[in-house]
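Quick one before lunch.
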Amino acid sequence: MATATDKTDQGMELLRQVVDGDPALGCMQCGMCTASCPLGTAMEFSPRQLILQARSGNLDAVMSSPSLWMCVGCYTCSARCPRGIELTDGLWPALREKAMLEGIQPPTELQDAFQNIFKYGNSLGESPRKRLGWAKDLDVPLRDLSKEPTPVEVLWLVGDYPSYYPRNQVVARHFARILTALGVSWGVLGNKERAAGDCDRLFGEEGLFETLVENNKKLFDQQQFEKMVLLDPHAFRALEHFYPRYGAEYPVEHYTTFLADRIEQLKPLLTKQVEATVTYHDNCCVGRRCDSFEPPRTLLEAIPGVKLVEMVRNRENSLCCGGGGGGMWLDGHITEHGGQRLSDDRVRQAAATGAEVLAVSCPFELSRFEDSAKVVGVEGTLKVRDIIELLAESMGLNEP
Ligand code: SF4
Ligand code: SF4
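Model of the iron/sulfur cluster complex:
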């Protein structure tokens, strides 16, 4: 049976793994992390308390608390910690991984997502054979590189939601049209594509993440491409930040930076007016995590007719939609334990600007914010649109 000293040692060891330097010099219990956390008040153990409890050897209490599954990976605590402690990508996943190794199960919906990724290679549990369903009536040529490996400029990882979810499939088709209109040679992995992982490495499921990296590396290494482009900021961050740790390093870009770098080529193609007041939601992975705030705005400001207005919380201070860090599958758990749906709060903030369009650049956000617009009662006055859809409209690229 573990003694109190053993338990304290375990807690300190865990902290040692995630805090740079001497843990005793690390956290000073200032509480900035907890004060910044959008779900901190609902957590039994907020980020600050979590460190305190771990140091005191109360790991069992921390790991069995519902609050272990309430972090949505927004990165605000890590970005603001004066000691630079990596809570989001370090402490939380390490604690979750340890909890799972000790037989503590995550909430059911999250377990289902893990199972789906393991069995089918996508979080939705769809058949890998239907990966190209989004492209069924696509009106531009598509190269399936899994069948005919051809050197291309862009290997586009379409992503789970754009591959399967009808609302996101529209965005995927428009992106294909935009790439084609720009004269970019591009290809996809077709039925061979699998989930890339997430910005915080699958919410603690490090083993599953490693398997994904290993399988994806084999696939990517069979292709010749100049860069990999993704619509999903979570997958982008995983490839950019965590894959290199496993020897899988590729030139990778989120679509917002890829297109913003081609803005001079894009501008003459933006011929149609899109008369709308638009506010943009900075997603946490591309924004706060990767410090990339201007490319989405460069794209929106280039669209004739668009008037860009900012929410009070923007750029590094943006409020998370609640979908990251496994949050897509944790809404039920979070609300059951006293947390609120952050997407509802964010839609209220967007509506307060008077904007007619809430622009996004993450596949999760379309469905989250559209649901929230209904909940909040602004469905008729605030439309949620991916930046790709606004660009396509201005380019006169329509669904047949
Ligand atoms: S912000 Fe950093 S130093 Fe302050 S309590 Fe949180 S982890 Fe500790
Ligand atoms: S990453 Fe965000 S949700 Fe998670 S603990 Fe930090 S501030 Fe809270």
